[in-house]
Amino acid sequence: MPWHMSNDVMVERHVKLFKNGRNQAVRIPREFELPGKEAIIRKEGQRLIIEPAPPRSLLAVLAALPTLDEEFPPIKDLPAEPVDF
């Protein structure tokens, strides 16, 4: 990430690219750190844009959970009790 805005002044810093296995990587300097443990990267022309990943929705988290292979006991379907309005 070559630059960021700080008090409306563009700041940039040269960084080294290196190989991490078969991937190219860049060490992000402390002043450019992103929050969290995941990020989104996209390419726009010759620019690479790296942004913090948005929090996952509860539905996405639930969908990623493994299914349970347990047998649950049957639940009696009792008739509703009368309600006095």
Could you walk me through the main structural features you see in this protein, from its secondary elements to its overall organization?
By secondary structure, this protein is mainly β. It contains one helix and six strands, in the order ββββββα. It has one helix at 58-64; strands spanning 3-6, 9-12, 17-20, 23-26, 39-44, 47-52. The protein has a two-stranded antiparallel ribbon. The protein has a two-stranded antiparallel ribbon with strand order 3-4. Strands 5-6 form a two-stranded antiparallel sheet. Strand 5 (39-44) and strand 6 (47-52) form a beta hairpin. The chain is elongated, with a radius of gyration of 25 Å. The mean pLDDT is 86.
Spatial order of strands in the largest sheet: 1-2
| Termini Cα gap | 65 Å
Query: Spans with pLDDT under 50 lasting ≥5 residues?
Result: none
Q: Which percent bin holds the helix content?
A: under 10%
Oligomer: single chain
How much strand content do the residues show? 25-35%
Task: Please tell me the overall pLDDT.
Answer: 86
Defining key terms:
single chain, 85 residues, mainly beta, two-stranded antiparallel sheet, two-stranded antiparallel ribbon
How is the secondary structure organized here?
Elements: E1 3-6, E2 9-12, E3 17-20, E4 23-26, E5 39-44, E6 47-52, H1 58-64
Antiparallel strand pairs: 1-2, 3-4, 5-6
